[in-house]
């Protein structure tokens, strides 16, 4: 095998590896986005119950070298299948820290102590409930990693097909 043939083979291998990496990254993102969409869709099928907010206050923290952060410290009670439960999740991801205090104070105004809200309860773990659903937007953008996947497959095809001069 001549050095010219070796160079062509190395070039094809390199192009194929780029295509394989694109496909792998696209598959990973496709899986993550699909998982996010399915979880958001699943919570919409959970049973509902009325929840009463028992505690609603702003919690603050300051980590040295960074701006102060705040989050809503919320507790609400609800009844499910004849039992009482207490939870603090607004969304499935919990209450996140924010540097924007106005975001947290708007949540405080939305969920004052004593207010009633609809809670969606996880039937498998009734001590887990949410007051807001996650967005299903990830499901509407599944096409994007699929396009990258098709492009990666095209790159692989271009690298393996026989190009005779």
Brief summary of the model shown:
The chain has 165 residues and is of the alpha+beta class. Helices cover 44% and strands 24% of the residues.
Describe this structure in words.
The protein has two domains: 54 residues; 88 residues, EV matrix protein fold, CATH 2.60.510. 44% of the residues lie in helices and 24% in strands. The protein has four helices and five strands. Helix 1 runs antiparallel to helix 4. The longest helix is centred in the N-terminal third of the chain and has 41 residues. The protein is elongated, with a radius of gyration of 25 Å. It starts with a helix and ends in a 5-residue tail after the last helix.
Topology:
Elements: H1 3-43, E1 48-61, E2 69-80, E3 83-87, H2 101-110, E4 116-121, E5 129-130, H3 137-140, H4 143-160
Antiparallel strand pairs: 1-2, 1-4, 2-3, 4-5
Helix pairs in contact: 1-4
Tally the helices.
4
| Strand segment tally | 5
Helix content percent band: 40-55%
Name of the CATH first level of the largest domain: Mainly Beta
Name the structural class: alpha+beta
Characterize the biggest β-sheet: 5 strands, antiparallel
Q: Taking Cα atoms only, what radius of gyration do you get, to the nearest Å?
A: 25 Å
Which architecture of the largest domain does the CATH hierarchy give at level 2? Answer: Sandwich
Q: Helix-strand pattern, N to C?
A: HEEEHEEHH
What value does the average pLDDT take? 90
Strand order in the sheet with the most strands: 3-2-1-4-5
- The structural domain count equals 2
> What overall geometry do the principal axes of the alpha carbons give?
elongated
